[in-house]
Structure formats: C-alpha cells, structure tokens
Amino acid sequence: MPQHVTRPNSQLLIGSAVVAVAGTIAMVLGNIIGSMVVPNHDWVADTVSDLAAGKYEIIQDVALYGFAGALVACALAAAHLHLDGARWNIGIACLALLAMCVVVIGARNEYGDNDNEGIVIHIYVVYVIGALFAALFLTMGRGLGKIARRYGVMSYFCAALWIVGAPIFFFMPTGYDGAYERGLGIISVVWVIAFSWMLFSVARGRENTPTQG
Predict the structure, then answer these.
(1) pLDDT given for residue 116 in this prediction
(2) How far apart (Å, rounded) are the C-alpha atoms in residues 110 and 53?
(3) pLDDT given at position 35
(4) 3-state class of 162 per DSSP?
C-alpha cells in the first residue's frame, strides 16, 4: 500500500530558501566588493582569504557568515523535507558541519596576514570543507532526484566538478589560484541556489513531493 505523504510546511521551506539565497548573494557581493575595495588585491592571483585580513576584513567576514547562514537554512529545510534515508541524513550533517567550518574560518582571521601565532588551523579547515562539499553533493543527489531528475543531475554534476577540480587547487601556481578558487566557489553557489529553487518549487506545489524517507 502507498505510504501517507506528509505535506511539507511551505512557510518553512520558503523562509529557508529566502535565507539561503540571501546568504549566498551576501557571499558573492562580499567577494566582489572586497576585491574592489581592498588595496592592491588581484582577484586572479590573490585568494579570497586575502580579503579577510587588514582594514577591510569585515566585508569578507560578513560574507562568510552570510554563507554560513545559507548552509544552516539548507540544513533546516533538508531535515524537514527529508527526501531519502541514511544518505540524506549524511547530507544534512555535511551542511551543518560546513556552516560551522565557514564560521570558524571567519572568526579565526587566519587569512592573508601570515598569521603563525598559536595553532593555525585554516588549511586543515579548508581540507575538511573540500571533503564535506564532495560528500554533500554525492549523498543528496539521489534524494533531490526524487523531486525532479534535473536536481539529482545537478548535484551529481557538482560532485564530479568538485572531486576533479578541488584537489587541483593545491597545485595551482600562485599567479592563478585566486581565480581558480573563485571558480570552485561557483560550484557551491550553484548548488545552494538550485537547492533553494527546489524548496520554492515544492512549497508552491510546482514539484511533487515524494514519500519522505
């Protein structure tokens, strides 16, 4: 017999989508504005981390906290919607941990200031973020595909790009690693925006909601 399908809370989904989109826009705008405001910043050669040190560090810090909020909103909506079993649970955990990592990076201020006092954890957090995004894209792909095939394809495509492209960043010449890092960032932005659009669509009844697993 078919299982009873619980109608998702449309207000929660729309609210989460709005926060996710706003946080992602904040991240993008913070990067663009910071690149223009920070003196002598070369967006091709200098990484995003270089924007968060010095007089204008608040711009990039706010951008990072905004994106952390976007990830938390996605985690909240994903927990409510729950489109898959254990894989989906792992994806929710990845979203929550990613938000924590982004906050840590913003709070620690270990960017382009050559900080070497105490325990410098920036690079280790970057490694964790790389692994978590790959896991997120992979584990949520099947569940997203239950809403519409295009969402699952999007998530797996992001996973393929990330898994192939992220390790290359650590071997990029310093003259180009800034642009390459921003390219990787676009992958995460695309995923969050697509996830948010899915939430809008489900909340407005434009997509069929499968039996929650």
Answers:
(1) 53
(2) 8
(3) 81
(4) helix
Question: Helix 177-203 vs helix 57-81: angle between axes, to the nearest 10 degrees?
Answer: 40
Q: How far is 82 from 77, CA to CA, in rounded Å? A: 8
CB 145 within 8 A of CB 152: yes
Q: φ, ψ for residue 54 (rounded to 5)?
A: 100, -160
Q: Are 70 and 91 in contact (CB under 8 A)?
A: no
Dihedrals phi, psi of 142, to nearest 5 degrees: -65, -45
What's the distance, CA 158 to chain centroid? 11
CB atoms within 10 A of CB 162: 21
Whether the CB-CB separation of 203 and 15 falls below 8 Å is answered with no
Give the DSSP per-residue string, 10-46: HHHHHHHHHHHHHHHHHHHHHHHHHHHHSTT--TTTS
pLDDT at 135: 98
CA gap 100, 98 in Å, rounded = 5
Query: Which residue shows structure tokens 């560090």?
Result: 57
Cβ neighbours of residue 182 closer than 8 Å, sequence gap 6 or more: 31, 43, 48
Answer for the pair 99, 75: CB distance below 8 angstroms, yes or no: yes
User: How crowded is residue 53: how many other Cβ atoms within 10 Å of its Cβ?
Assistant: 17
Per-10-residue mean pLDDT of the chain, 213 residues long, equals: 62 97 95 81 69 73 94 97 92 97 80 54 88 98 95 97 93 79 94 97 79 48
Inter-residue contact 34 to 51 (CB < 8 Å) = yes
